[in-house]
Amino acid sequence: MKPTKVLVADDHDLVREGICKLLELYEDIKVVGEAGDGLETVKGVRDHFPDLVLLDLNMPRMGGITAIKKIKEISPGIKVLILTIHDEEEYVYEVIRSGAEGYIQKDVKPEELKRAIDKVIKGDKVFPRSTENEVREVVNEKYEVCELSSREQEVLELLAQGMSNKQIAQELFISEKTVKNHVSNILRKLSVNDRTQAVIVALKRGLVSLT
Question: Name one GO biological process term (predicted).
Answer without folding.
Answer: phosphorelay signal transduction system
